[in-house]
Design a protein that fits this description.
Length: about 120
């Protein structure tokens, strides 16, 4: 059974930083592309960042390019999202998920509980 457990969220002031973690189990982590998503109430869940299986390719939403960094460790079965220069518009619940291939959009696992990020002065 695929399990995705996000953590590391919190409340920070604009300009602050947070590092989110996603611990996974129940599937062969090293064989899956991983993504971070975020969702605000009343809106769809949007992709924020994606990383391929061997960490050689990453992509980011334009709104976070240059501020967020996705990384992974295939021995720890964990993916991270380092967030810097946070803005109020980054406030959302953040989720991770897996994809069977780089180009597959459909998430592999059920969504975890997510981790809340609040950016406010």
């Amino acid at each position: 059974q695929v399990q995705l457990v996000e953590s590391g969220g919190g409340s920070v002031q604009p300009g602050g930083s947070l590092r989110l973690s996603c611990a996974t189990s129940g599937f062969t982590f090293s064989g899956y592309t991983m993504s971070w998503y975020r969702q605000v109430p009343g809106k769809e869940r949007d992709s924020v960042a994606r990383i391929n299986t061997i960490s050689t390719i990453t992509t980011y939403a334009g709104s976070v390019e240059g501020r967020f960094t996705i990384s992974r460790d295939n021995l720890l079965n964990t993916v991270w999202l380092q967030m810097k220069s946070l803005k109020p518009e980054d406030t959302a619940v953040y989720y991770c998920n897996a994809h069977s291939t780089w180009s597959t959009q459909r998430p592999y696992g059920s969504w975890g509980q997510g981790t809340q990020v609040t950016v406010s002065s």
